[in-house]
DNA sequence: TTCGTGACAACGG
DNA sequence: CCCGTTGCCACGA
């Protein structure tokens, strides 16, 4: 008997990722924590794997806790993710987002979306 | 159901 | 800051 919530796990990630404001970024752990699955940060990225094709889901705004563009290799273009971030006013150096903490957007403080 | 995998995170050195 | 190891949980076969 699988829980219905687990089935929405991917949708959860997509929704949170979609609501990421322009010029902001977040981490997998933050999203996972926002969903109530703090220990499932890996699943967030796993879910994003299918989202990388969805333009509705700005997966390029999702980085690891260190601000590294860990998933850039999964995008259509090798450096597409970095260019997208730079296009939004960010600064990327060696696959690493500069001033990451300043641009970090915590979804937990936005959890009040309540569907 | 079990096994293996993974765009992470946290800890120790 | 970098490096290696461990834990985490959902998904696919």
TrEMBL record:
<dbReference type="InterPro" id="IPR052520">
    <property type="entry name" value="ATL_DNA_repair"/>
</dbReference>
<dbReference type="GO" id="GO:0008168">
    <property type="term" value="F:methyltransferase activity"/>
</dbReference>
<dbReference type="InterPro" id="IPR036217">
    <property type="entry name" value="MethylDNA_cys_MeTrfase_DNAb"/>
</dbReference>
<keyword id="KW-0227">DNA damage</keyword>
<dbReference type="Pfam" id="PF01035">
    <property type="entry name" value="DNA_binding_1"/>
</dbReference>
<keyword id="KW-0489">Methyltransferase</keyword>
<feature type="domain" description="Methylated-DNA-[protein]-cysteine S-methyltransferase DNA binding">
    <location>
        <begin position="8"/>
        <end position="89"/>
    </location>
</feature>
<dbReference type="InterPro" id="IPR014048">
    <property type="entry name" value="MethylDNA_cys_MeTrfase_DNA-bd"/>
</dbReference>
<keyword id="KW-0808">Transferase</keyword>
<dbReference type="GO" id="GO:0006281">
    <property type="term" value="P:DNA repair"/>
</dbReference>
<dbReference type="GO" id="GO:0032259">
    <property type="term" value="P:methylation"/>
</dbReference>
<protein>
    <submittedName>
        <fullName>Methylated-DNA-protein-cysteine methyltransferase-like protein</fullName>
    </submittedName>
</protein>
<dbReference type="InterPro" id="IPR036388">
    <property type="entry name" value="WH-like_DNA-bd_sf"/>
</dbReference>
